[in-house]
What we know:
Blueprint: H1 2-44, H2 47-67, H3 70-78, H4 86-99, H5 125-128
Helix pairs in contact: 2-3, 2-4
Amino acid sequence: MEKQMRIARRLSRHSASAFLHRRLAGEAFRVSSATACLLAIFLSAGGHWAVLQSFAYTRMLVEFAQKDSLSTAVKKTFDGHYSCSLCPKIRAGYNEERKVPQRVGGAHSPEFIVQIPACSFFLPAAVADLPFVRSLSPDFLTAPPKPPPRVV
């Protein structure tokens, strides 16, 4: 009896730890996949240029604040006349990226031979042969028959 109790406790501990392990692994996968999606959105929206420009501004602000007062350092950092060596490179890279259209794998845009107006549509032949059903939901536009039918 005591041996069976020990085995039962050991099994319950293992199943509980396996359950906890699966749950934590699922949670870690969910968090990491959400983080990867947010990072991809951030990078595709051009967030990396904002990070680089923030780094350059911070570096300039610290550099100017060592020589002048903080208000003068802020003015020099953001007025555009005292740019550092990174600012023109960041601006050039940002402008170059905006000029080049992004294409995946060098794919070209499709060229259509026949131009179809936007308002027209067609049904496949298999659907066109089906009989038309007016409505599967009850029709609430007409009143119920009067007097109501009696249940026999």
